[in-house]
């Protein structure tokens, strides 16, 4: 298996940094190939701007971001840092996104990686032979698996189905469904470290490190989250669930083919 581990934490000596090291070591011991993108260590530029593309100002000097990114991708003129990340994605069959959960989402540097790397024509807004847009279960990254490894400061119970912070699968829906599934990657249930703001003992760390190693053993075999395929017949031409599909279920829950499994650890 070829695994791309994308790490977004500013401190290599943090709990997350130590778990990253354990995870990469475990994968290599299992015989997998691993490449890494340590975004803070790389000094990754998090904002989209004109330096990302060989900009053509034929549209009266106005940069239409998606179109400009796609044109540069197809012409091979995206900036070198973006092309390097896309090459890693093309190489990988599995992606691990590892980040602390800040304000109920990834750090800005990782959001900037999404914005700059997952461009039209490469990861999204790709079409099939009949001109239909491939997304939600299909797309430029179809066939790959993806896992979120994250840490939260709160206790585990507060991220449960009735917890004040909301269920973790719901909190991560924008990443699982809006990034992974939209581009065709199959999202695995996340691996979460709870209570990360407290001082971890050596025993605490070993417990989580062992749990992470066990989860990584299932990268190829664990069941992904059961999202509905856009092209699977459940959605109408307006991309709304058809009458009779998921009766009585609304919101995020309706876009799963079955009940969402609880977040394993």
Automatic annotation (TrEMBL):
Give the keywords, sorted.
Oxidoreductase
Q: Which residues form the signal peptide?
A: none
Q: Which residues form the Flavodoxin-like fold domain?
A: 1-216
Q: Domain of life of the organism in this record? A: Bacteria
Keyword Oxidoreductase listed? The answer is yes
Q: Could you say which protein family the record assigns here?
A: Belongs to the NAD(P)H dehydrogenase (quinone) family.
Recorded protein name is: NAD(P)H-dependent oxidoreductase
From what organism does this protein derive? Answer: Streptomyces albiaxialis
